Amino acid sequence: MADGKVTYEVRADDSNLEGDLNKAEKTASSKLGKFGSTMGKAGKAVGTTFLAVGTAVVGVSAKAVTGAADLDKSMNQLAASTGLTEKEMQAYEDTLKDLYTSGVGESFDDIANAMATVKQQVGDLDQSALKGLTESALTLRDTFGYDVSESVRAANTLMTQFGIDGDTAMAMIAKGAQNGLDFSGELLDSISEYSVQFSKVGLDADDMFKIMEKGAETGAFNLDKIGDAVKEMSIRVVDGSATTAEGFSAIGLNADEMSAKFAQGGESAKEAFNETIAALAGMEDPLAQNQAGVALFGTMWEDLGPEVVTQLADIQGGAYATAEEMEKLNEVKYDDLGSMFEALGRTLEIAILPIGEALIPMLQEILESIFPALEEHLPTLIDAISGIIEPLMP
Q1: Is 5 helix (H, G, I), strand (E, B) or coil?
Q2: Are 387 and 28 in contact (CB under 8 A)?
Q3: Residue 291 pLDDT > 90, yes or no?
Q4: How far, CA to CA in Å, does 305 sit from each of 115, 185, 292, 309, 311?
Q5: Does 353 or 41 have the greater pLDDT score?
Q6: Taking a C-beta distance cutoff of 8 angstroms, is the pair 95, 63 a contact?
Q7: Picking from 31-45, 253-267, 363-377, which range would have the lowest pLDDT averaged per residue?
Q8: Handedness of CA 173, 178, 182, 185 (dihedral sign)
Q9: 4-16 mean pLDDT
Q10: How far apart are CA 350 and CA 333, in angstroms?
């Protein structure tokens, strides 16, 4: 010890190292020699088979074979989860390949799962409609983080309640998200839950999205409250209660006439909705307006306030979104060099799939000939490896 330092001298005893290594070498040579001799015949057979395959295996590489195997696995999962028949499978496989080469989805399996979700929730579709809904659902996921199952459910609700096609439904969801309607994280849930209520009062899908947007612009603190307000109103205006009658009377409308209009649905209900909102908005006495609002909208009037509810009918005509807008989103989302290279690579993968599909049966035969020998002599191989490791452990 000097100057506050402590020095240690460490020595390793390597006097037996050379002998241990020689012993390990002899043990390994002996045991692997036995393994090699027993595998000789199988090795020659496998070598002859691979030689026959020749440069095709080298040229195709593992990508063709693994790609074909992955596709086959994905299609099996799709068939199992949807009940597709063998006759139907080819059309679905072609659609999956088209989607894959377009650049959407993460893998064959990812796309197959999305296709299964669409089929399970929407039912039987032609391949064009299936492709459109699946592509849109994956694009919405990659753009806005929406779960595929939730976006498909919302789109299916729009299709069912308002009679629109899948492309338009998905375009409306995309447009709503772009316009900030998911400010409270409830856009998809609100669509799924309240579409039926908007439909009951004669409003179409365009009206619903415009009303939700107007409510958001005028101060609604979450989207769910706007849908709930329309739901509460749709229940009260046809319930025939004294409270509802007093509410209509307070805004200068006849309860029986308005109830009949709402009950007819369609344009009649839409006209009644606009009349009711306009009459409420035109009231000058805040106290009377508040009483009428509570009578017709219940607690939703109190939650949203007159500033929001009285603006719900103040919307412009025209389409909220068209199917073409979903196509524009797809173009913008995947219009970059990385996406282009990804699509090119996927196109090449699809191009070599037939080679992999042709090789798989041959490779299965080769593996079937190898496995019995491997299973028989695997303990010898494990023993040989152990013989190498044990002398080196000290």
Answers
A1: strand
A2: yes
A3: yes
A4: 43, 21, 12, 6, 11
A5: 353
A6: no
A7: 31-45
A8: positive
A9: 52
A10: 22
- Alpha-helix residue ranges (DSSP H) falling in the chain: 17-38, 40-53, 55-82, 86-102, 108-122, 127-144, 148-162, 166-178, 187-200, 205-217, 223-236, 242-250, 255-264, 266-281, 286-297, 299-304, 306-309, 323-333, 337-392
Of the candidates 299, 128, 335, 320, which has an alpha carbon nearest to the alpha carbon of residue 210? 320
- Kindly state the DSSP code that residue 219 receives in the 8-state scheme: T
Contact 21, 391 (CB under 8 A): yes
Place of tokens 């197959």: 112
Read off the DSSP letter of residue 318: S
Q: Which two tokens stand for residue 177?
A: 């998200």
Residue at 45: amino acid letter: A
Read off the pLDDT of residues 65-112 as tens digits, 9 standing for 90 and up: 888 889 999 999 999 999 999 999 999 999 999 999 999 999 999 999
d(CA 27, CA 45): 28
Give the separation between CA 217 and CA 180, rounded to whole angstroms: 10
Instruction: Quote the pLDDT of residue 38.
Output: 44
Q: 């989103």: which residue's tokens?
A: 329
CB-based contacts of 20, cutoff 8 Å, min separation 6: 391, 392, 394
The tokens of 59 are what? 């040229």
d(CA 279, CA 292): 10
User: What angle is formed at CA 98 by the lines to CA 90 and CA 66, rounded to 5 degrees?
Assistant: 75
User: What's phi and psi for 46, nearest 5 deg?
Assistant: -65, -40
Other CB atoms closer than 10 Å to residue 275's CB: what's the count?
18
Alpha-carbon distance 284 to 54, whole Å? 90
Among 1-15, 174-188, 215-229, the range scoring the smallest mean pLDDT is 1-15
User: Nearest 5 degrees, angle CA 344-CA 347-CA 351?
Assistant: 140
Please give the full DSSP string across 145-160, using - where no structure is assigned: ---HHHHHHHHHHHHH
